[in-house]
User: Which sequence fits this backbone?
C-alpha cells in the first residue's frame, strides 16, 4: 500500500494537470480575489482596467504558483485519506479499551499536524486581503469577521476529513465492545452483588483490601473507556494545533482594526 501511494505521489501527470488548473484563472480578465474590489496596486490607476507590472507578476507568477502548491497539498491530502481507507480495510487488531480513546488508532491524528503550515499559509492570504480592505477600502472588522470565521471552520474540517475514513471501522469496534464488555461487566457485577451485598461470601472474609473491589473498579473504568471511545481518531492537542494555525495569521488584522487605546483598556480590564 505504501509503495502504491508513493508511486501515485511521484507521478508527473497529476502535477501537470494541477499546473494547468493553476493557470486557467490567470487567463480570465476578472480578478479572482473575492475580498478586494475597486482600485488597488494591480492596476495602473483608479478606474483603469490595465494591469501594472506588479499586477502582471501577481497574475502570471504569484497566484498560479500559490494555486499549484495548494492543489499539490490537496492531492497529497487525498492520497493520505486513500491510504488510511485502505489500511482500515485490513484485519486490524483494535482494542476498544485502549487509553487513546480510539481503539489504538489515536496516533494517526499526529499526521494531521504536518498539514498545519498549509492552514497557516491560507490564513495569511485571507488575513492579507482583509487587512487591505480595512486599511485602504474602508471595511470594518465586523463586516469582515465572517470570512475569517468561515475560513477557520472550513480549514479545520478539511484537515480532519481524512480521518473520517476510519470512522466506520471504529464505530463497528465500539458497538461490538459495548455488547461484549457490557455482558462481562454485568456478569461480574451480579457475582459481586451476590457475594458481598447478599452476604454469600465465606465466613470471616472481609471486603476491605479485597481484590474483588479492585476488579469491580477496573472493569467499570474499562467500560467507561469503551463508552467514551471516539469514532474519529483526533485528540484535543491536534485540534488545538490546527485551530492555532488557522487563527494566528488573523491576529495582525485585529491590531489593524482596533485602536491601541482600546486594546490596552481591554487587556487592563481582563487583568483587573
Assistant:
Amino acid at each position: 500500500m505504501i509503495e502504491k501511494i508513493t508511486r501515485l505521489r511521484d507521478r508527473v501527470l497529476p502535477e501537470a494537470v494541477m499546473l494547468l488548473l493553476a493557470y486557467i484563472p490567470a487567463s480570465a480578465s476578472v480578478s479572482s480575489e473575492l475580498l478586494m474590489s475597486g482600485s488597488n496596486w494591480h492596476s495602473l490607476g483608479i478606474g483603469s482596467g490595465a494591469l501594472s507590472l506588479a499586477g502582471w507578476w501577481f497574475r502570471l507568477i504569484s497566484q498560479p504558483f500559490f494555486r499549484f502548491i495548494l492543489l499539490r497539498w490537496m492531492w497529497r491530502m487525498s492520497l493520505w485519506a486513500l491510504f488510511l481507507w485502505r489500511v482500515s480495510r485490513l484485519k486490524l487488531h483494535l482494542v476498544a479499551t485502549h487509553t487513546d480513546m480510539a481503539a489504538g488508532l489515536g496516533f494517526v491524528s499526529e499526521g494531521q499536524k504536518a498539514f498545519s503550515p498549509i492552514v497557516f499559509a491560507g490564513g495569511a492570504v485571507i488575513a492579507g486581503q482583509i487587512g487591505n480592505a480595512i486599511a485602504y477600502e474602508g471595511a470594518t472588522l465586523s463586516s469582515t469577521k465572517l470570512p475569517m470565521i468561515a475560513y477557520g471552520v472550513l480549514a479545520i474540517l478539511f484537515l480532519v476529513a481524512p480521518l473520517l475514513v476510519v470512522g466506520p471501522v471504529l464505530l463497528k469496534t465500539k458497538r461490538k465492545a459495548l455488547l461484549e464488555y457490557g455482558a462481562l461487566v454485568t456478569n461480574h457485577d451480579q457475582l459481586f452483588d451476590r457475594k458481598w451485598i447478599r452476604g454469600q461470601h465465606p465466613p470471616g472474609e472481609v471486603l476491605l483490601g479485597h481484590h474483588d473491589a479492585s476488579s469491580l473498579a477496573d472493569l467499570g473504568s474499562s467500560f467507561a473507556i469503551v463508552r467514551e471511545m471516539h469514532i474519529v481518531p483526533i485528540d484535543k492537542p491536534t485540534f488545538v494545533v490546527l485551530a492555532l494555525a488557522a487563527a494566528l495569521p488573523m491576529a495582525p488584522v485585529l491590531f489593524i482594526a482596533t485602536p491601541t487605546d482600546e486594546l490596552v483598556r481591554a487587556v487592563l480590564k481582563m487583568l483587573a
The chain has ten helices and no strands. The two ends are 58 Å apart (CA to CA).
